[in-house]
Amino acid sequence: MNLLDEIKESFREGSALTRLIYINLGIFLLVRIVNVFYFLSGTQFPFLDWLALPADFGLLASRPWTLLTYMFLHFDFLHILFNLLWLYWMGQIFLGYFDQGKLVAIYLLGGIAGGLFYVAGYNSFPVFSEIVVDSRLLGASASVIAIVTALAVYAPNHTLQLMFIGPVKMKYIALFSVFMYVIGISSTNAGGNLAHLGGAFWGMIYVLQLRRGVDLGKWITKLFTGIKKSMAPKPKVKISYRKPVDDIEYNRMKNQDKTRMNGILDKISKSGYDSLSKEEKEILFRMGKE
User: Of 35, 47, 145, 282, which sits most exposed with the smallest number of CB within 10 A?
Assistant: First the structure.
């Protein structure tokens, strides 16, 4: 099995977390490779602008798919490295409390919530009025923080061993992250921090509703389950063909069976049923059912 086949097998047999990581990594590599060709040709690279989430309502209306694509899109190596490490660590813990369908649902809906917070913030606060047209959002951070916040609400006392710090409970990690996002709004990454707050908000709401018996992401789980079933290989059905029997052959076989049946009945009338051999009893039973 070559490397490509191993990757395909790992993606097909892996968990939802593995697939989310593969999708993010695959899109990153594809974007960077295509960017090299555009760079060498001396032309502008257009794909980031078509896949990243615009803050301007007019552009968003013409590119609605960006509300989904932006959360899988990265361009800088350190950006995707930290997001995927954070996704892997938090995703592993998440799957210890929830199923894989909920991981996918909270990733997607957390990303959408983050995108909506970003767009709403840039169109609501005067400080962004001059840059809203040119602003773009990309990255999985909002989706990841949605997972972190969901864990903090569901299992607030789950403890992590952090390097140079020691044991820290999940609720403190989430609270510190949210605090940093709030004060980070006045930094150069205001849009990213608004998106993070949107993801955090969704993670909290999702778990609070789940405790009430309402799964806000159930429709996504059903959608992806249906897609997975439709893409699964269909079992091969073996069809056997029997050579048709013509009328002459059919009549000959029926007469032969009738003659044999009459012989068995004569034997029964003379010597009784117990005188029949095992084969004759089976023939009598089979023909009696016809």
Answer: 282
Q: Are residues 251 and 198 in the same domain?
A: no
Radius of gyration of the chain (CA): 33
Do 279 and 147 have their domain in common? no
Pairing state between β 159-162 and 166-169? antiparallel
Q: What is the CATH number of the domain that holds 182?
A: 1.20.1540.10
Taking the mean position of all CA atoms in its chain, how far away is CA 213?
A: 22
Same domain, 277 and 161: no
- Our count of domains for the chain comes to 2
3-state secondary structure of 191: helix
Answer yes or no: is 113 within a domain: yes
169 CB contacts (<8 Å, ≥6 apart)? 156, 157, 158, 159, 160
pTM: 0.75
Domain housing 160? 3-231
Which secondary-structure segment (H or E) carries 84?
helix 77-94
pLDDT in tens, 70-86: 999 999 999 999 999 99
Query: Strand, coil or helix: what is 168?
Result: strand
What pLDDT score does 187 carry? 87
